[in-house]
Design a protein that fits this description.
heterodimer, A: 348 residues, mainly alpha, V-type ATP synthase subunit C fold, 3 domains, B: 656 residues, Alpha-Beta Plaits, 5 domains, 26 helices, 12 strands, 61% helix
Chain lengths: 348, 656
């Protein structure tokens, strides 16, 4: 019974994944001359065409494509949620919360800059079906207190209420970090509520994700921001796999990045640091590529669990991130060979 | 007529008359309101260009919708307050509204006076309630530190240390714990909150206060509310103090409440009147939101029954300069709603029809046919005088309590009683009365044959319904040449005829055989080529709307499905006979059990249980089976059910 529970969603995701773009498509996209060419290729030759056809190729901004792709991700997630119920469904809902948090972040930045929030409408992506954040009303808000008041029935109120005001110099970073932490704490909670026997691989994969996010945070916190040990701990994620509380504590106690590298030399995550010059430049990409292969594996092996569906959504995230990177790289006029270095998926 | 004709009524009137006119509309009730602004925008609300219409026409250029013009009125708040004070015991009384003069100003004055009378007590109660809320907060706050054996004034007056009490989420509590050793304060875990948060007391030297607060802020530390410098005793004493104060306030509050209630009872009549009028205006406000307004005129649209036209015109005559226009369905109005009208016998069955879908306005109402056949098939399957009587009593009681399906049950029960006499069965016993017709178990074949014949008759009627519906919608292709159209009917008849001739039901066989086979084949061919045939007759440009090969593959399978369907639909009605047999058989099994136990008391127990079991379980199964025959075998032939339900005003409005 437990096995057949996921049969339907697994087959569905298999079909959905088959429609996504292939390596040859990536090569074409990389070769494309400019944004318009990328857009036309996506519209005419890929599965995304359906969702991009309303955009005007002559008057296009790259954020429009990005927002469209995020909208697409929300739709795909909602579609998969039809097949789920109970704890599985609430776990999947976290994927929508992630998008919601992104949208709130855009709005809060808008408030910090005293922007007219209505002008940000085009950047706001959320699931109309599942959200309980009143985005329509938030867009009309003028000040921070009113903004918080509208969120009073949501979990976000608890996160935001202690911040008396918000501006770029003050508290904005703290608020953004707090929102992220809220998201990951809730994700961890939902993750650990899943059936552990069936979803062991999925849980481990996600815990590795937590590990990696922590490592990048601590490494950068020490190297660039010179943060205190308390601040590093305060925004670290909990529920990792290999980096347990003690190791986390040792890591934040490190005096410099060399000590961090030494501590991790025998761990699974040594790959992040065993390079000579390019650690900082490619750290994010290395982490994501590691996760990419991990989720690919989970996708192919997780047909009897929630693993395949979740891996699918993560792979879709990476795909959207790669398309976004390609679009970005056109702006900097990078050469095709160079672009490949910045993509999560390795392309030869 | 089962489906009433509805017409669209458009009204333009002077804005001074709007409240009175709306009140008339509201009391009339049998109107489905339509958003007038939407009607005007879509070009359906048309005023003939004539001299007397000039004002109304001019108004079109400066319209605002009622939604923007009306907004929330303060008397809605009053209505809510009255409702709250009398705990919902006031009801909107339509008859007194129709009689009385209902000027808003007078009532508002009256309510003001009423409010002044009760306001003192009411406000005081509110004030006390907020005080109690505050005290309860303090009680929770101080109970976190009830073990501290020091006066709060001492803690508050510390010279070099400051303390604070607040909460963080579980995850952040874990983070806080892992920096206990390096944070510049003393951290005590002093309790848990209900909403999954942990409460901490933080004591830090004043010199490090800023730094430790920065860290706490990063952990989303939220101060507990309810502490106050006014409380100077030890926490335990404070808690006692709060407790005393709460009970004191509660006593006071109860006294006030008693006084308030006396006052309320004294002025109940006035309040009821005011409530009536104010909620009338609340409702008018809702209706007016659907209207459109110009500076001098209001515009109203709604669906009414055709037979109400004269009544509406009489209402319209009361107002000078009011233009009232009526439009028939096909003069370009939007899709009209369907208003069902059936007599007392059939109307409860509308609920069953609505389960499937509301009939479209240009479709026959299936309710009468469904009612008759549903009652008949239920009775046929579940014929028993005693059990039927119990069903009808239950149905009657439920019906009285307002359960629509109860009324259906009452009718089913009566049919069951009727067939009980036919079969001679009372509570399962077949010895008590003589059957008027037959005993099902004695003549099994007759039962099954009868069932199939009844099914055929029902199918014939369904074909006729289908043909009428399709022709009404001018679907010649399906109505004449389709498988549920005239050709389908002829084919079905000739197949039945063939069957009848060859199994010897009709004696004079022989020469008709060839004719019937010829007709059947011709009909099959016509159904197969119905699309090109229709297109040819109506001289359309293209004979086929899709690829020719695709059409024939599809159509070929449809023929296959049609022939199979005719067989299976007909045989499906055997279940009516089969369930009639099961009904008897099931009881026989229990009866045998009752005899086998050879103990009077247990036997009676078994027989009572058998009846309960049969009434509930078999009753349910039979009613589902009968419904299945309707929905699957019959409705699929003739009924689309894609109409919109006519909603009179009182369904649209939900203010009490």
């Amino acid at each position: 019974m437990s096995k057949s529970k996921y049969a339907c969603i697994s087959v569905k995701t298999l079909a959905m994944r088959a429609q996504k773009i292939k390596e040859s498509d990536y090569l074409e996209l990389i070769k494309a001359k400019n944004l318009t060419a990328i857009f036309q290729y996506l519209r005419d030759r890929t599965y995304y065409g359906e969702f991009l056809k309303n955009l005007d190729p002559l008057n296009l901004h790259r954020t429009e494509i990005e927002v469209c792709l995020s909208d697409f991700k929300v739709l795909e997630t909602e579609k998969l949620m039809h097949y789920l119920y109970g704890k599985d469904k609430s776990f999947f809902k976290m994927l929508l919360v992630q998008v919601e948090v992104e949208s709130l972040r855009v709005l809060i930045r808008g408030i910090a800059r005293n922007d007219d929030l209505e002008s940000l409408r085009g950047l706001i992506v959320y699931s109309k079906k599942y959200t309980n954040v009143p985005f329509e009303r938030l867009l009309r808000v003028k000040d921070w207190d009113k903004f918080k008041e509208l969120l009073i029935d949501t979990d976000y109120y608890r996160v935001l209420e202690i911040f008396k005001e918000v501006s770029i110099e003050q508290d904005l970073v703290m608020i953004e970090k707090s929102l992220d932490r809220y998201y990951y704490d809730s994700l961890k909670k939902r993750l650990l509520e899943l059936d552990k026997k069936i979803n062991r691989d999925l849980i481990n994969a996600q815990q590795r994700n937590f590990d990696l996010l922590n490592l990048v945070w601590i490494y950068r916190g020490i190297k660039f921001y010179k943060l205190s040990r308390e601040a590093l701990i305060a925004y670290s994620l909990r529920g990792g796999l290999e980096i347990n509380e003690r190791r986390l504590s040792n890591l934040v106690d490190a005096k410099n990045t060399e000590e961090i590298k030494e501590q991790l030399i025998n761990s699974d995550y040594a790959f992040l640091f065993n390079h000579t010059k390019t650690i900082d430049l490619y750290m994010e990409r290395r982490m994501k590529r590691y996760l990419y292969y991990m989720y690919l594996k989970l996708f192919s092996e997780g047909s009897n669990s929630l693993g395949r569906a979740f891996a699918y959504s993560q792979l879709l995230d990476f795909e959207i991130a790669d398309i976004t990177s390609i679009i970005e790289s056109k702006r900097y006029r990078m050469k095709p060979a160079e672009i490949k270095y910045y993509l999560i998926r390795s392309i030869d | 007529m089962a489906i009433e004709n509805v017409i669209m009524m458009d009204v333009v009137g002077k804005i001074e008359d709007v409240d009175k006119f709306t009140k008339d509309i509201f009391l009339f009730n049998d109107i489905q309101i339509v958003d007038a602004m939407h009607e005007i925008d879509s070009g359906r609300f048309i005023l003939p260009i004539r001299e007397e219409n000039i004002n109304g026409l001019l108004g079109f250029s400066q319209l605002v919708s009622g939604e923007t013009k009306m907004g929330e009125k303060n008397y809605i708040k009053m209505v809510n307050k009255l409702n709250e004070l009398y705990k919902g015991s006031l009801k909107l009384n339509m008859t007194s509204l129709a009689k009385g003069e209902t000027a808003l100003e007078k009532v508002l004055e009256k309510v003001d006076e009423f409010e002044r009378n009760i306001v003192v007590e009411y406000d005081e109660i509110m004030y006390i309630n907020t005080q109690i809320e505050g005290l309860k907060k303090s009680r929770t706050a101080y109970s976190y530190i009830d073990e501290v054996d020091a006066r709060m004034s001492e803690l508050d007056g510390l010279e070099n240390f400051s303390y604070s009490i607040g909460s963080v989420t579980k995850d952040n509590a874990a983070r806080l714990k892992s920096i206990y050793n390096s944070v510049t304060s003393i951290v005590f875990h002093i309790g848990n909150q209900q909403d999954n948060e942990e409460v901490f007391m933080i004591i830090s030297p004043k010199d490090f206060e800023i730094e430790s607060h920065r860290i706490l802020k990063a952990l989303n530390y939220k101060l507990i509310e309810g502490f106050s410098l006014d409380y100077t005793e030890t926490p335990r004493e404070i808690l006692q103090l709060i407790e005393d104060k709460i009970s004191e306030l509660q006593v006071k509050c109860a006294d006030l409440l008693k006084n308030l209630n006396i006052h309320l009872e004294e002025s109940r009549k006035d309040a009821a009147d005011s409530f009536n009028t104010l909620s009338l205006y609340g409702n008018l406000n809702i209706i007016e939101k659907y209207m459109a307004f110009s500076e001098k005129n209001f515009y109203f649209s709604g669906w009414i029954s055709k037979r109400d036209k004269e009544k509406m015109e009489n209402i319209g005559k009361k107002y000078p300069d009011l233009i009232m226009m009526f439009f028939e369905i096909n003069s370009g109005s939007g899709k009209p709603p369907t208003k069902l009208k059936n007599n007392w016998l059939f109307s409860p069955f509308e609920a069953l029809v609505k389960m499937y879908g509301i009939p479209s306005f240009d479709e026959l109402d299936p309710t009468p046919f469904l009612s008759i056949t549903y009652m008949f098939s239920f009775g046929f399957m579940f014929g028993d005088v005693g059990q039927g009587f119990i069903l009808s009593v239950i149905g009657f009681i439920l019906g009285k309590k307002g359960v629509e399906l109860g009324k259906v049950l009452l009718r089913l029960g009566i049919c069951s009683i009727f067939f009980g006499f036919m079969y001679g069965s009372v509570f399962g016993f077949e010895e008590m009365i003589k059957p008027v017709w037959i005993r099902p178990f004695d003549e099994i074949n007759t039962m099954l044959m009868a069932a199939v014949i009844i099914g055929m008759m029902m199918l014939f009627v369904a074909y006729i319904y289908s043909i009428v519906n399709k022709l009404k919608k001018k679907e010649i292709k399906e109505g004449v040449f389709g498988k549920d159209g005239i050709c389908g009917l002829i084919l079905y008849t000739s197949l039945l005829g063939l069957f009848g001739l060859n199994v010897g039901i009709f004696k004079q066989a022989g020469q008709f055989n060839a004719v019937l086979i010829g007709i059947a084949i011709l009909m099959v061919v016509i159904v197969l080529i119905r699309e090109p045939l229709t297109n040819y007759l109506f001289k359309s440009k293209h004979l086929y709307q899709e690829e020719i090969s695709e059409y024939y593959v599809e159509s070929g399978f449809e023929i296959f499905e049609m022939l199979l369907g005719m067989l299976s639909n007909t045989l499906s009605f055997i279940r009516i006979g089969a369930f009639a047999l099961t009904h008897v058989g099931l009881f026989m099994a229990f009866q045998t059990l009752a005899i086998m136990v050879q103990n009077g008391v247990i036997s009676v127990g078994i027989l009572i249980f058998a009846n309960v079991f049969i009434i509930t379980l078999e009753g349910l199964i039979v009613s589902i089976q009968a419904l299945r025959l309707q929905f699957y075998e019959l409705f699929s032939k003739y009924y689309t059910g894609d109409g919109i339900e006519f909603k009179p005003i009182d369904l649209e409005i939900n203010l009490f």
